[in-house]
Amino acid sequence: MVTEAATTQAPTTEATTTEAPTTEATTTQAPTTEAATTQAPTTEEATTQAPTTQAATTQAPTTVQASTTSSPNLPTSDGTVCPSGWSFGRQYSCYQLLFDRSDHYDYRKGCTDLGGYLAVVNSREEQDHVIQILRYNASATDVISGMFDPFYSLIYTGEDGSYLSYSYWDDGNPDTSGLKTRVLFNKTSNFSWINAEMSGGPNIALCEINGGFDGCFNNPTTYHVKVSHSRLMNSLQCIEYCRGQDIPKAAVSGADCYCVNSEPAGKQSPSDCALGCPYNPVQHCGGTNKANVYSVSFYYSRAASCMHLAEQGVLIEGTYWVQEEAGQTSKKVQCNNKGPCHTPLMHVYDNTLTITTSTTSSDANYTASNAFLYGVFGVGFDTGDSNPWIQVSFSELFIFTGIATQGAKDVDNMQWVGGYTIDYSEDGMNWTHYDNGNQLAGNTNFNKVVLNTFKDPFLAQHVRLYPNSSTCHNNCSLRMEMYGCKYSSFDHGDYYVGCIVETMDPNLSPVMERVISTNCGTPAACVDLCRDNGYLYAGLSGDNCSCSNSVDKYGRSSKSYCYTRCSGDSIAFCGGHYRYSVWRTWDVRCPAVPSVGNALASTANRQHNVKVTYSCLPGFQWPAGTLEEHKFITCQVNNWTATPPACEAVQCAGNLQTVSNATVTQSGNRYLDIATYTCIENHAFQDGTTTKKASCLSSGQWDNNVPSACIRPQCPAVSSSLSHTTVNSSDHGAGAAVRYECSPNAAFSDGSSERTRRCLVSGHWDSTEEACGKGHCEITPHQFGGWVKVCLHINSIIKVDNIRHKPILRAA
Q: pLDDT band at 653, cuts 50/70/90?
């Protein structure tokens, strides 16, 4: 069973973080001495049909058609005249079979040396013709073709530089097992297509030469326009780029594509132009100072959109022809323009950036210099590095809007990073985690590009990528690209993205990811809806408001194709037929709002042109002489304006309260400083405390809630008449000491005849007041013999001998 299709696109799974990113190329507009040619405007769609399939004045180089036999199976010619050695002519293409070469590469070189290439089939009619050719050769089994999958992605390209829009797969093909990158014509199934690995048979190949390939020439010295890219150039890219410029000839030499009006001088040997292209090594990109030259009109492109062109290698930003509907007029669209601030920064600024890594791989092929997307090998790390990282440092501040990664370009040792985190910094010392350190989706094979668009673009000069080692396949190796723009040159006020093409194919996912409203009449309302729902772009087609995080899939038209007036804004335009007028919802932010000492910012908003006004906290004021214009900052193109000075504490001076009988000490005389009042000795405040504090208020005044004086507390008065007692003073103020003396033969209860009481600052005596008691004396015999005088005083306590039950007497 054979599966025949109009396109060769492999099924894909859409994800918001996954797409094939593109890279800007260097474009040179040169003065030319060629015949005058008017370049088509790059932002306008042409209204005429794309160049036709046949070039009216072009055909393969001719001598005499090769002789043929009279076999009934010999393919008939339509009159195409073939060069010597070539036959089976049809539609300006001629063919030749090669036998018994050593390997696939030798067959490819053999076709090139003959001035052709391995045969590529672009239509059912051509497939039928090839079937006849191969049937005619009775010895043919499987036959090598010129269709090839250079990236093991099931996206096939033609060696001749044509866009493949036709397929004739055998049942079960393309086979996804193994590294089956080349296409063979399978005799056992009517020469339908099967994919196979590079090694091994078969021992026959079909070569082709067509009228679109002019041959190998010296590099052009004059040209209409030149575009260059050291990693993305390929012959299909050059042909389609020059077609978009409406220039008849495309000349490709290494990384350079020249759009010219006629063949350059100095035709060379085909073997001098066998250099593989940087992006697709199966296609030919000339040689040293030599270019392969193609007649653009012969290679009629039927790509339905920019996405389809990109899948086969058209990745450089420019104007291209697409055929949105089969059989309909082709149109010009802008492809590979990912929106505002989405320049491939590593490619454009590779001469001024610095790439460093945490460690260096022991494999010399995996160095920092190979970290570029679509480049050779990739960047790697020491196998013992438990926390690898790669840092890209630029010469100035950039706005970063996305990052793309690939695995390492090494088929024999497939390596990639499945997930990673991003940190960024303005100064290389203070780092911030993007998205709070959440992991971004990485790769699942070694060559497919995965793009993560930053939903919150950030400002930085240094970016670090940290591979998650647990997600790495074999080793943590990758290629990468950072997207964004210079902060100093970004047009912060331009929100309009363009007139974006929507697909007409119901089998493809739409460019706008979510329809959020069918009754939205103004761009402003649509932008707000999409921003509030976390999308980067908002698009209107009539009253239908849709949101997306990427808008470059199918290309963009000139603004004139978005001709529908908005229902809620008669001045604005809201899309057209399968077209969306699209605006960005995101803003570029300044760095975090700077802090000002002892002041509050009016907002944390960091958007362009935002004004942040600072207010001093209560108790603080601007330094003397601070002008009003120095009390706010504005987010400008090159960062915030100058930060205001710190607010100073207000000063309390000249009105500190005086307190009698107290000393005062101050910690200072500004807001929140303290004045401490301490009463002098034997003095206290009315409440009995000896210290009080006064605070410097935010008003610049001391609170002055301290009593006006410290006073001398008074203890209860001394009794004026105590029996048998003499008092030497009536002073009962704090600190006073009153002496009590007993008259003769009188004593206090403890037997003492003198006592001193002191008045405390608390207003209490340190002991209770007591009168002296009068004593009674007798002469009495002592228990051990003799006589003693014993005096018993009033209130005396007599101890008793518990054994003899007699009082214990004490001599007077």
A: confident
What is the tens place of the pLDDT at every residue in 459-477?
A: 899 999 999 999 999 999 9
Amino acid in position 324: E
Look at residues 131, 126, 119 and name the one whose alpha carbon lies nearest to residue 166: 126
Encode 427-459 in three state secondary structure: CCCCEEEHHHHCCEECCCCCCCCEEEEEEEEEE
Q: Are strands 662-666 and 674-679 parallel, antiparallel or unpaired?
A: antiparallel
Please report the sign of the dihedral spanned by the C-alpha atoms of residue 781, residue 786, residue 789, residue 794.
negative
Rounded-to-integer distance, Cα 144 and Cα 146, Å: 7
CB 240 within 8 A of CB 320: yes
Q: Give the right CATH number for 59-210 from 3.10.100.10, 3.40.190.170, 3.40.50.2300, 3.20.20.70.
A: 3.10.100.10
* Nearest alpha carbon to residue 696 among 726, 721, 720, 676: 676
- Domain 599-649: assigned CATH number: 2.10.70
Instruction: Work out the percent of the chain whose per-residue pLDDT is above 90.
Output: 65
User: Residue 147 has what pLDDT?
Assistant: 97
| Rounded CA separation 105/199 (Å) | 10
Which residues lie below 8 Å from residue 159, measured CB to CB, with a gap of 6+? Answer: 108, 117, 118, 120, 146, 147, 148, 282, 283, 284
Q: Are 148 and 235 in contact (CB under 8 A)?
A: no
Contact indicator for 454, 410 with CB cutoff of 8 Å: no
The pair phi, psi for residue 98, each rounded to 5°, is: -115, 145
Tell me which DSSP letter residue 89 carries.
E
- Separation between Cα atoms, residue 776 and residue 793, nearest integer Å: 6
Distance from the Cα of residue 557 to its chain's centroid: 28
Name the H helices within 120-168. Answer: 124-136
Which stretch of DSSP H or E encloses residue 501? strand 496-501
pLDDT at 170 exceeding the cut of 70: yes
Range(s) of the chain covered by CATH 2.10.70: 599-649
* Residue 725 Cα distances to 606, 755, 791, 793, angstroms: 89, 10, 18, 14
Per-residue pLDDT tens for 757-792?
Answer: 999 999 999 999 999 988 766 666 666 666 665 555
* Number of Cα atoms under 13 Å in the Cβ half of residue 225: 21
Distance CA 46, CA 460 (A): 40
Domain with CATH 2.60.120.260 in the chain: 343-489
- Find, among 229, 243, 276, the residue nearest to 24 by Cα: 229
* Tens digits of residue pLDDT in 263-285: 999 999 999 999 999 999 999 99
First-last CA distance in the chain:
143
Superfamily of domain 343-489: Galactose-binding domain-like (2.60.120.260)
| 268 in Cβ contact with 217 (< 8 Å) | yes
**Token code pair at residue 88:** 């089976």
pLDDT of res. 39:
38
